[in-house]
User: Which sequence fits this backbone?
């Protein structure tokens, strides 16, 4: 079936959470018989738009029309009655019931006032055969893989209402063959005239299956494009908010040292963690500042977390200074001289109620063990030294950290790790939410650390920042490492091409 | 035998084995273990207590007679556990219904049938209040029913601190009405054919059991109970009114607790404050031994019946044995409970590994 008329239009939708605009004046149009990708970085407003559409959240202004008729969905059930069904990444089915029951729950076929199990099984079998899925419908759902469960969810959604189907990140936990299977089902449904909204961050998949793309950024509509008219690089540029044509060459600050024969500090071979980051190789040498770039949600932080052991790797091996490292818990990493500044400093970094001093000595104390207490005097000495080096602005060293500004809190975390004299630092978004001046200071500090012979991994959403400080750049896409650029190759254009992947032009 | 036949046989064997494996490892496995355990225990009893006539039909029926109230209460408990809830007030509800019955008939001069109707309505109201707090106010079922347990026990004492013996004629005639089975009789010493009998409470318990089975298996509401137990969040997103389902389950449970109380009272024909203490725990134990885990989503009322029967058989063994203190039956039940809980968690772990 050819792509038909508009079945769903969302017009000027706005929504804010606690005064922060999550969506402002977003338009979205879906046609019958098309697969429409909804793209954007994490936090771009994809989920909010979907929630508004399915009635999980209310919108403040705007209008939603189904087949020209304005509707208001107050709950997912109401959305379903209006012909909009959603299949989420997490399966919302009952694992203890049979496949057939999950398909028909709440609308089981009945005979003489009792549930007619025979008919139900027969109908379920037919429904799945129509989608080319051959499974035992009498078996309980928890006997099946996530992929099958997802397909059961889709079958249910389609069986209930068949106008608009929303697939919210359905492929995140599927392997390649399962994705293929899902796509063939999507194509079938498209043939039947369904409009499918496909929310994903897998660029490749979008180009494989979708007809149209709508891009959001920071809660605003960037545009709607036909897939054929939007090269991948352009898509990435639009998602990141860069004007691809006018990319300025950024002059590098002071790059890390560039010795070819510097000693290797960290060597990862096939390191990976199922569901978080696919196996990757990585070499980090003394004096390296390695940037990790990719779209938000492409596995940048995950890569760092796996090296640090915050997420336990299940494949590959990690060597540090040529010795095999067996990191079971973050403390092992601390003991081996790895420091990690997490992305989310409020939740994972500082402990707000403790003082600047206590926060700073925390990691060193943990490394030494609780039975070898650092003397008070020693603690004060360390604190004063680092408050001085990093220019931490606090009323005094006993002030609770929560009273400090974001930039100073970040410096406290940094001081904590520097105190342990690590060989290798992982800094995940160390400059987020910090004023320009402090940002520059931190960038300079990173370069200086590298000059001292430490190895650094630096993750930032701002490419410019990494361009200034890094001598190598790792590019992530869809949870896997897809490329590595070094020195002169590191330009915005090259990075974006690598992120876009495929035969990008 | 030629080669094809042999291969065919092997294939058939494989098919049967995989079918058995699948069935055994499915949700029916726990029920299967329970039934098997009861059968093994019963057969063992036939040999060990041959001289004491353990094989007599009446001995078996006595298991049902002395536990009719427990069966009824446990059916309600099964539904509560399937939605992953809990109700520890049922013992006190049994006590208070029994006390109310006795008091109304002996002091209030209300006849048996209206008195029974009143206590059943009380049970429904009691379940509704608890259910409202749990389903609509989202309070922890353990805490709500803990309060309910204290309240009902306190109410029992407020009605009467003295033991009340029931003398109401209608009530006693129901309690003592023997319903003879048309088969299974044996000759007594004088050569007269004696048929085994049950009391109306057993008939009521079996009717409730069958009705509950039909409801759980063949009605949308029954299936919704399982769905809520499997995943509340999913059930809600699949369009079920989760709150209402939970509310109704606690109402049914309240009703069955008071009906269990009536059956209990017909057995004791008297009421006192300490009546049916720990009864709620017996109901939970019987349900869990019957294959309904506390985690919800799975369960079967016939399993619960066998759970009660296992408990009753152990008690019979201990009393037949003669020299053991009756408290030994508690220790054996404790061991059984531990066994079943470990079995359940092993099964869950195995399933998770498989995926």
Assistant:
């Amino acid at each position: 079936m050819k792509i038909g008329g508009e079945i769903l239009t969302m017009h000027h939708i706005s929504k804010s959470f606690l005064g922060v605009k999550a969506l402002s004046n977003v338009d979205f149009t879906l046609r019958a018989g098309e697969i429409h990708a909804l793209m954007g970085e994490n936090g771009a407003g994809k989920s909010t738009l979907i929630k508004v559409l399915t009635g999980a959240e209310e919108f403040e202004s705007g209008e939603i029309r189904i087949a020209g008729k304005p509707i208001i969905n107050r709950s997912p059930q109401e959305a379903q009655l209006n012909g909009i069904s959603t299949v989420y990444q997490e399966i919302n089915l009952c694992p203890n019931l049979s496949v057939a029951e999950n398909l028909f729950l709440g609308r089981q076929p009945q005979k003489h006032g009792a549930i007619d199990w025979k008919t139900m099984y027969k109908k379920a079998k037919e429904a799945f055969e129509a989608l080319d899925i051959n499974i035992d419908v009498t078996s309980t759902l928890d006997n099946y893989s996530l992929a099958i469960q997802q397909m059961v969810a889709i079958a249910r959604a389609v069986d209930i209402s068949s106008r608009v189907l929303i697939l919210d990140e359905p492929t995140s936990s599927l392997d390649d063959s399962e994705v293929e299977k899902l796509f063939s089902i999507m194509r079938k449904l498209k043939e039947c005239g369904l409009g499918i909204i496909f929310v994903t961050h897998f660029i490749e998949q979008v180009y494989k299956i979708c007809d149209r793309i709508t891009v959001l950024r920071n809660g605003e509509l960037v545009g709607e494009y036909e897939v054929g008219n939007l090269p991948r690089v352009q898509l990435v540029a639009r998602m990141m908010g860069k004007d691809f044509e006018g990319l300025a060459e950024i002059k590098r600050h002071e790059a890390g040292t560039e010795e070819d024969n510097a000693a290797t500090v960290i060597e990862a071979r096939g390191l990976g963690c199922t569901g978080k980051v696919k196996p990757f190789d990585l070499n980090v040498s003394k004096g390296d500042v390695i940037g990790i770039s990719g779209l938000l949600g492409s596995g940048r932080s995950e890569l760092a977390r796996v090296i640090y052991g915050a997420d336990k790797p299940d494949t590959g091996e990690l060597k540090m200074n040529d010795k095999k490292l067996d990191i079971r818990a973050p403390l092992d990493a601390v003991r081996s001289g790895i420091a990690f500044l997490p992305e989310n400093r409020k939740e994972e970094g500082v402990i707000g109620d403790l003082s600047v001093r206590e926060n700073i000595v925390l990691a060193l104390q943990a490394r030494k063990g609780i039975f070898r207490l650092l003397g008070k005097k020693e603690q004060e000495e360390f604190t004063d030294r680092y408050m001085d080096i990093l220019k931490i602005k606090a009323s005094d060293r006993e002030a609770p950290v929560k009273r400090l500004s974001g930039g100073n809190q970040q410096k406290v975390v940094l001081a904590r790790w520097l105190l342990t004299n690590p060989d290798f630092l992982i800094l995940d978004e160390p400059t987020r939410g910090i004023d320009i001046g402090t940002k520059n200071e931190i960038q300079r500090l990173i370069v200086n650390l590298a000059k001292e012979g430490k190895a650094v991994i630096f993750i930032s959403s701002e490419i410019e920042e990494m361009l200034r400080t890094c001598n190598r750049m790792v590019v992530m896409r869809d949870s896997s490492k897809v490329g590595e650029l070094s020195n002169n190759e590191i330009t915005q254009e090259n990075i974006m091409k690598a992120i876009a992947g495929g035969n990008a032009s | 035998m030629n080669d094809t036949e042999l291969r065919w046989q092997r294939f058939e064997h494989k098919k049967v084995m995989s079918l058995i494996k699948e069935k055994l490892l499915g949700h029916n496995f726990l029920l299967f273990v329970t039934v098997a355990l009861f059968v093994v225990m019963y057969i063992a009893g036939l040999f060990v207590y041959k001289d004491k006539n353990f094989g007599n039909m009446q001995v078996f029926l006595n298991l049902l007679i002395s536990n009719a109230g427990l069966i009824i209460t446990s059916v309600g408990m099964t539904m509560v556990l399937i939605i992953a809830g809990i109700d520890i007030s049922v013992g006190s509800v049994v006590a208070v219904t029994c006390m109310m019955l006795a008091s109304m008939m002996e002091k209030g001069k209300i006849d048996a049938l209206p008195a029974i109707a009143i206590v059943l309505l009380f049970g429904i109201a009691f379940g509704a209040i608890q259910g409202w707090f749990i389903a609509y106010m989202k309070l922890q079922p353990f805490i709500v029913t803990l309060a309910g347990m204290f309240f009902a026990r306190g109410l029992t004492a407020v009605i009467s601190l003295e033991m009340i013996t029931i003398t109401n004629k209608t009530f006693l005639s129901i309690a003592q009405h023997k319903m003879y089975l048309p088969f299974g009789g044996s000759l007594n010493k004088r050569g007269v054919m004696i048929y085994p009998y049950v009391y109306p409470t057993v008939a009521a318990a079996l009717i409730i059991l069958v009705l509950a089975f039909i409801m759980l298996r063949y009605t949308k509401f029954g299936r919704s109970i399982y769905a809520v137990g499997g995943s509340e969040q999913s059930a809600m997103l699949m369009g079920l009114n989760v709150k209402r389902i939970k509310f109704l389950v606690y109402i049914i449970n309240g009703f069955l607790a008071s009906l269990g109380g009536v059956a209990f009272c017909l057995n004791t024909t008297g009421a006192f404050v300490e009546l049916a203490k720990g009864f709620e725990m017996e109901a939970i134990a019987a349900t869990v031994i019957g294959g309904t885990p506390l985690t919800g989503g799975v369960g079967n009322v016939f399993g619960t019946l066998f759970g009660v029967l296992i408990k009753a058989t152990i008690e019979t063994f201990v009393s037949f044995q003669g020299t053991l203190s009756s408290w030994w039956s508690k220790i054996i039940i404790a061991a059984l409970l531990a066994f079943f809980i470990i079995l359940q968690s092993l099964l869950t772990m195995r399933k998770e590994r498989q995926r």
The beta strands of chain B are 164-165, 179-180, 186-187, 193-194, 197-198, 270-271. The CA atoms of residues 286 and 307 of chain B lie 4 Å apart. The longest strand of chain B covers residues 164-165.
